[in-house]
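Cross-posting from the modeling subforum.

Setting up a comparison between two proteins and wanted a second pair of eyes on the formatting. Protein 1 (sequence, then structure tokens):
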Amino acid sequence: MIAHIVLHHQIDKKKESRIKMKTIKNNYMSNYHYTKAVHLPAIVNEGKIRTTNITGEKKERSAVWLTTSEEWEICCSIAKFEQDGNTTPVGLEEMKQIMGVCRIKISDKLQTTTYAKFKHVGKVSEFCIDYFTDYFTKAGCKTNLWNCYFNSISKEYFESIEMMVGNEWVTWDGSISIEEFVD
């Protein structure tokens, strides 16, 4: 997303109505944290999204994983074993039936790190990150939309908490318990 920001009004004596603008890249976009319905009550009741590791390497920096995509992120699905011994994530429809799919919209005030930058600062081997990226890209993930945050994300950054019902995202309004909401 590109934002045009007026830094200051410089009046050009020849063209007084001209305002000089500088274009800057704005990294503040809404992110979503996708999760299974079974995990949502713990997140809400604890008031934070905890960090996790994605590769299992000992030196990897733990992070909360986010995406700017408004669509369910397939990498959040459970995996099933194929006859050849490989695993593949289950699709959205199957995931909705088995586990339920939820998301938390995160405030754009939280400054995140892109996945491209994580490759360099996440302390993961190049081989491992390439394998991970290839696996999820083939599964349909849009890793170019991924972001991370290297600490837990507290509820003050939660803008909405939603669960997919049918084909629509339904927002939890707090009028019932989170446990009832995901049931």
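Protein 2 (same layout):
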Amino acid sequence: MRTISLDLLKYLPSKAIPALIGLISIPIYLNYLSQEQYGSYIIILTITSMISGLFSSWVGSVSLRYYFTYGYEKLNNYLKSFVIISIISGTSVWLILYIFFDFDVNRDYFFIVPIWYFIFCLFEYKVIWFRAANKPVSFGIALSLRSILSLLVIIAIFSNGHVEGKYIFYGQSIAMLAVL
């Protein structure tokens, strides 16, 4: 029981800090964005969350489950093709949804989301190895840094007059690339 509690404490920052930053970001986004812009952002966020849940989150589960069975080299070679399939599948679903459902949002999302999703998949793939290798501090730092940098970059973008929901995806992409 002590081992489980200790492990829980080690991984707590990887969940708690991003959750806190997410909570802090809501009033900041609401302060900068109009209700229409925030609504469009939330629609796109919901769709991207669904896509990433369907097409990329499972790669992390596989790496965690089979890391000790196959080791890094073998599993890494095997999973690279699945990451590529995840990127292609997720992007394809986004494009199909966007075209056929005619979302009433800024047309720039059509291009921004696939770029964000590509970077997101690379980030998730890279960071999950910290968890698989039982490196909770590195895992927590990567996820926390992504959240903190995302918020700071988004605030900087908004402060320079670029005030639309699409810039949240730009800010997150920049932060993920910086952490990679």
